Amino acid sequence: MAKKHIIVDPITRIEGHLRVEAVIDENNQIVDAYASSTMFRGMETIMQGRDPRDCGLMAMRICGVCTGTHYQRSIEAVEDAFNVTIPKNARLVRNLIQGALYVHDHLVHFYHLHALDFVDVVAATKADPELTAKEAIKWAGVSGHKPYISAAADFKAVQERLVKFVKEGRLGIFGNGYWGNNNYKLTAEQNLIGVTHYLKALDIQRDLAKMQAIFGGKNPHPQSIVVGGVTCVQDIKNPARIALFKTLLKEGTEFIKGAYLPDVYMAGTMYAEEATDSEATYTATKGKGVGGTGGGILNYLSYGDFKLDDTGFYNAEDLFPAGIVMGADVSKVFEVDANKIAEDVAHAWYEGTGAPEHPYEGTTIPKYTGLEKKEDGHAYLKTEEKYSWIKAPVYDGHKMEVGPLARMVIGYAKGDERITKYVGNFLKRSGLPITVLFSTVGRTAARAIETELMADVMVEWVDELAKNVAMGDDSTWTEFDFDVVSKDCKGAGMAEAPRGALGHWMVIKDGKVKNYQAIVPSTWNAGPRDAKGQLGAYEAALIGTKVSDPEQPLEIIRTIHSFDPCIACAVHVVDTNGKELAVYKVDPTCTF
Amino acid sequence: MGVDKQDSVKSLFTAQSAKVDTNRGDAYYEDLYAQCRGRLDELKNLAPLNNRMDFKESIEDEGLERRDFLKWASATTAMLMLPASFTPLVAEAAVMMNRVPVIWIELSDCAGNTEALIRSDGPKIDEIILDIISLEFNETLLAASGHQAEKQLEDAVEHFKGKYLLFVEGAVPMGMNGQYGTIGASGETFHDHLQRLAKDAAAIVAVGSCATFGGIPAAAPNPTDAVGVMDVVKGKPIINIPACPANPSNMVGVILHYVLTGGIPELDSLLRPKFAFGYRIHDNCERRAHFDAGEYVEEWGDEGAKNNFCLYKVGCKGPMTFNNCSIIRYNEGVNWPVGVGRGCIGCSEPDFWDKYAYERPMANAHIKAPTGGVEKTVDEFGLGLLTAAGVGIAVHAAASAVAGKKENQGEA
Known about the structure:
Mean pLDDT of chain B: 82
Oligomer: heterodimer
Helix content of chain B: 40-55%
CATH class of chain A: Mainly Alpha
Low-confidence stretches of chain A: 572-592
CATH architecture of chain A: Orthogonal Bundle
Helix content of chain A: 40-55%
CATH topology of chain A: Cytochrome-c3 Hydrogenase, chain B
Strand order of the largest sheet of chain A: 1-2-3
CATH superfamily of the largest domain in chain B: NADH:ubiquinone oxidoreductase-like, 20kDa subunit
Distance between the termini of chain A: 54 Å
Order of helices and strands of chain B: HHHHHEHHEHEEEEHEHEHEHHHHHHHH
Number of domains of chain B: 2
Number of strands of chain A: 18
Mean pLDDT of chain A: 89
Radius of gyration of chain B: 23 Å
Strand content of chain A: 5-15%
Number of helices of chain B: 19
Low-confidence stretches of chain B: 369-390, 402-412
Largest interface: A-B, 105 and 102 residues
Strand order of the largest sheet of chain B: 2-1-3-7-9
Largest sheet of chain A: 3 strands, antiparallel
Number of helices of chain A: 18
CATH topology of the largest domain in chain B: Rossmann fold
Radius of gyration of chain A: 23 Å
Shape of chain B: globular
Largest sheet of chain B: 5 strands, parallel
Strand content of chain B: 5-15%
């Protein structure tokens, strides 16, 4: 039997427009995979010529899901260029705005963008509500928390609602799903827990988003961060606002600990075979791999983020430390050297010299070569040539994965006290080795571990903020003389977004943005092959995966979703005439 | 400046917006009431598209009081600028929203409007998905991917031909023959995708700044030649719900209005529903008294900021922007950009990225020329941006600054 080449487009339950093509052999095993972004807006071009203070709000519109993260990185790039250190209150408010994003984004990702890869909605109609309640209590026990929902009556109510929905009507957003696929491994009761929490999480996420709105003004797209600090001085001075933040955080944390984590233990255990089935990874990595299905390139990068003191952006201690782990070897952590970052366009729709270019020297000249129409009516990626709007970043010539897994692995490998405690606790309770993390399921677990950590640490930050304000410090902004500092400078905002390492670079001349460049998490993860043929993180993670039904790309989307794709973020600059627009030159020494 | 001049500036900003006629008279509302009644009776005879349980019932299931539901209905009636007598009709319409199929597509977007939709609190999003509207397709939430997703979309279009509301999020890139955005196995361009789905829609609702007026992709120099839906789709009713992102209350309001009347709400010249975009932010701003008193935030974090003073001088574009955020705010009323001390960036107005979105007053904006080229101040553009309102504001700001100085001198 010949190999089968399948297209999955659109990949749904992500941000943005993504296509995956996979080649499947006669044993239904993926032997080749290609990821392609199919949308392009030209955000960085739009920034050029603007007042640098105005770029943050525009940069935020790169993405409405990781909303606020590009905003802050852009503002930080300007602050780095102007050499402005923000006041303590502003640092804490920003930590809370971004922290709220992390817990909101990770929760929505797990339940609304990812869970249906594990949870069979239709199968939940067959569950016994009494047994479901017992099951929920059991997994909450594994996680060491009180179950968020434990009454059989509650599960029964959801089930009745679901039965009515499934039996009589159209399924709406659940329509035409992969229900009944062999690779749904949860029991009926576990599926009902998943569906119940899916619905409850819709409620919870509205409240978690309010946390960002308290200090940000609204969500999505908050508006209170400015170069030099934040504007929400009234909100931090108002004890009722602080109290509301704490109440919402407390309620959200109860769900995170009583539902999200137990569900991850549950799914992790039911899919543990795939997480520890290292054969596929072993084969795919020619003997170097550890972990299981969906492991991928096993190189991890983090720029570090969440400043814990007021010594300045690149001096402060980070909650999530920066670093690099290669080949899933947690015995060694390398320091990040920004000079080793380069982008390769061999397979991206841009012109290039053939060699990877440092982002400071890189050019972005569009060269769209299109898709290849075939007789079956489909248009296929020209995989031998260029096939994506995303460039292929490399670090010191290596492809890297970024995201919560990278942050947890690097923190653990560095022996960071807090991260080691949370990761260690998870591994101990699940009874699984650290290698389990290097897989699709592990990537999902790492995000949950990080969510719990973030929910807990935010309590400390909000108390610290309230205390600082109570002691009479109501400073929220550091003054600077724009006309003086904006004459000729450059800066970088390199830190972490929920999806991983995010950098915004800016060159400023006579008060205007001369050049703007962003390399975002999904550029690292979703990028195509480089000139050497090294696969991108998505692509590599798919190799070796067994697909139970080639007509139903369930396993493919499960692994892709584990990265939490955010594709609008990942795309670069172009103009319609193919003019060179983004020649980017920065003195690398000034970026840290 | 004389006192009467100040008074005239004041009256300019105290006047209700000329754009909305809030009281059309009894005869008008009696006719409308009868029309709505007829429409709802007609809908009642239709089976729900999804046979899902009633909104009201589900609210009761959730343990909420009917009183709360009526409270919501009454607030929504007010938001739709209907007399209180319409409240029972609005409540009934909410219960029957599941007779309206909705297909939601994403083009050159950031998914911010989908995210905003899932923040909806009245009604809540789980109710919207399961019980209220018949959300047939939304890429961000849809379980199926690839061919199965495409089939789901095709089925919905076929099944609800001519009946569905097509929600569009994101701009339409027209450059390079539309190839800046493609979707589906056939590599269909966003433009072709939109036209195909628009053809069989009952009406099109463009949500967010990008789908309405081009938004961020269309900001100068508009690298992909992006445009809004109304620039390319002709011969269909189009409702624009701009803002970045659009307020979910306004999305729900438009659907409710459609259920209630069978038609689209009254629109302004930019196809925005007047119920939401009939007033300037400034008209109902909580910091308005400080504007009237000439009390401004002069720089971030100053004494004015600590006292909630007016944000005009740090770039608030509330006086130029039509939207209802000063009334309904965001995230269940938790906050909004003026509340958080930043001010309005004019995000519900066309070309706001090039005209309004900066932290200085317009007079000394130094913004990027929308046409590209050399940077100029707003005055030099001669874009007609400095409308009567703009001039009045600037005059008032200057006048109060002078007045403030005089007072200080007096004290000294």
